[in-house]
Amino acid sequence: EHERMAVFTPSSLSKKGLSAHGTRQVRLSSEVRRIEGHLASVVESAHDIVLSTDVDGNILTWNAAAERFSGLSAAEVTGEPFCKYFTEEYQRTVKRVFGQVVMMGDSKTQEAEFYTSSGDKALVSWVFSPMIDDYNQTTGFVVVGRSQESLRGCFFSRKSLQPSASWLEGLPMR
Q1: DSSP letters of 122-146?
Q2: Which residues of 46-55 are buried (b: 16+ CB within 10 A; e: fewer)?
Q3: How many alpha carbons lie under 13 Å from residue 19 in its C-beta half-sphere?
Q4: Continuous segment of H or E residues that includes residue 115
Q5: In angstroms, how far apart are the furthest CA atoms of the chain?
Q6: CB 67, CB 78: distance < 8 Å
Q7: Is the pTM of this model over 0.70?
Q8: Nearest-5° Cα angle at 132, 95 to 73
Q9: Rounded to an integer, what distance in angstroms lies between the CA atom of residue 48 and that of residue 63?
Q10: pLDDT in tens, 55-88
Q11: What backbone phi and psi angles, to 5 degrees, belong to 142?
């Protein structure tokens, strides 16, 4: 629920009134810091690559999974163009996707080959989402990626889902 904004008049500005208002502000500020800390922990704990960029596509944040996957630290990539880490073919594609996200105001997915610090290329499935401010303007992007290798590991083959006869033994039959 949204709290109503307090209107102060000279007669309402008693010491008690200011103290109560100040206490409420401290509590709200503390709650905001707690939520921000929780969200930061969620991003850092994710197994997916999670990063943010400014509107020009320059990297602002880079989570631990991005560091592990790419071999590049947040300090190495912060301020660098995100497109720099793609093959030349995909650099144009990623730039186009950023533009489409701004135009549509909605998320867009794209697979693209990403360079790691060792020079290896890895196919990654990316989701590009706009960060929107209070004026409905795009202020940057949140980009989440998962390598195709890890995606393959998430699915079971049809054969592995078939129960074996030994698994069925001992189950009551009707």
Answers
A1: EEEEEEEEEEE-TTS-EEEEEEEEE
A2: eebbbbbbee
A3: 3
A4: strand 108-115
A5: 83
A6: no
A7: no
A8: 55
A9: 9
A10: 999 999 999 999 999 999 999 999 999 999 999 9
A11: -110, 130
